[in-house]
Amino acid sequence: MTPIDQKDFTDYLADALRQNGMLSFADNASLLDSLYALTQRMLEVNEYMNLTTIKQPRDIIMRHYVDSLTVAAHIPTGASVLDIGCGAGFPCLPLALARPDLHITAIDSTEKKVRYVSETASLLGISPDTLTAISLRAEEGGSVGGQLREKFNIVVSRAVAHLSILGELALPCLKVGGTLIALKGAKAAEEMQDARGLTVLGAAAARLIPTPLTAPDTGKVDHHALVMIEKCEKTPKIYPRKYAQIVKKPL
Strands 103-108, 131-135: parallel, antiparallel or unpaired by DSSP? Predict the structure, then answer.
């Protein structure tokens, strides 16, 4: 692995956060250093485990860290948060570093990735009260009697599934009054149109919050967005269905 200059990395990271309106994070030297350490760790492990195809430090900053942290301003202090399909730890690891007040549960069906997230959190000094990772499928945990059902104030998810599928996985895990925050790309509005059937799960109409990500050096803009769906009623007991059914016939 090619060494990464820490000052160059943290300077660019601070500029990227500042450029994208995250001023308090940009001025947090401890956070910047921790994200540098996370990058070193991720790229080292990536040499023998498929964690990410994004390997250039500036791309990692923009496409993993700044993107992940767009959700932070929309999460109340002390909230219970579920990250569905955490993969290599996004958004849960940057979010836990930036918002240690949160109580994050990160789930993924791939046990080795869950183990990586747990070990990395420990190495970075993240408290288990702030972040716990477990190997579990969302549709199992969110079923009636499951350990995730109606337990969370916020569910976040990034690059996991189309909104019509993700909604059925996520909404049963939310308390009434909680919110699903899906990190999406340029087709977010199109996915919202396809996911109007989620109201049967107790969901209000989805809201779109554009979060364009601007690179501080080139000015290049990536058109990302947050889709926010509030849970206004309890989810009927028949949901979530088995995953094969969800995929075959989305709501």
Answer: parallel
The pLDDT tens digits for 227-240 are 999 999 999 999 99
Burial pattern 131-152, b for ≥16 Cβ within 10 A else e, equals bbbbebbbbebbbeebebbbbb
Q: Are 177 and 151 in contact (CB under 8 A)?
A: no
What is the value of pTM for the model shown?
0.97
Residue 238: half-sphere exposure toward Cβ, Cα within 13 Å: 4
pLDDT tens per residue, range 150-202: 999 999 999 899 999 999 999 999 999 999 999 999 999 999 999 999 999 99
| Whole-angstrom distance, CA of residue 176 vs CA of residue 65 | 29
Q: How many Å apart are CA 76 and CA 109, to the nearest integer?
A: 27
